[in-house]
Amino acid sequence: MPPEKVAFVGVGNRDKGDDAIGPLIIDRLKGKAPNAIDAGPTPEDFTGEIRRTMPKAIVFVDALFMKDLPPGAPAIAEIEEIGHYHETTHAYTMDVVMEYLKDETRADVFMIGIQPARIAFGEGLSPAMGDAQEKIVRCILAAIKKC
Q: What values do phi and psi take at 91, rounded to 5?
């Protein structure tokens, strides 16, 4: 799939420690991925911008509380799985936003979730999340380059 058909959407609050992982990854993709969108803590406010990219795939990147994974561990989460992770830092649960965009765009919608170590105001990224950020950015850029 051509990179311009993929929307990368970072979600999270930059002031809340590991919750900043989505926007920070988007910072690193800007200029390298055609549709890199920082949705901050309110992804529902960016659905129009995401729809305008006319994506075939929408990849959310966010801190995601997942059982039995160590801090910094990434996992691909489908819409149906997001609802099982009850703890959220967003006004709407991500499965609602993701389902809406899937219905509106007919795109493949999923999330790269990264297990946070800590989410607290005034904290920076934990070391595990810093390592995860580097690995995820490298993987995404390598995939874009192959296209």
A: -65, -45
Query: pTM for this one?
Result: 0.91
Q: Which stretches in the chain have pLDDT values below 70?
A: 83-92, 147
- Both tokens assigned to 114: 């990264």
Residue 92 is predicted with a pLDDT of 59
Task: Name the burial class of residue 142, with classes exposed (0-12), middle (13-18) and buried (19+) by CB atoms within 10 angstroms of its CB.
Answer: exposed
Total Cβ atoms within 10 A of residue 118? 16
pLDDT at 34: 87
Domain 3-146 of CATH type 3.40.50.1450: yes
- CA–CA separation, 58 and 107 (whole Å): 7
State the residue for tokens 């995820």: 136
Coil, strand or helix: which one is 125?
Answer: coil
Question: Which contiguous run of DSSP H or E holds residue 138?
Answer: helix 127-146
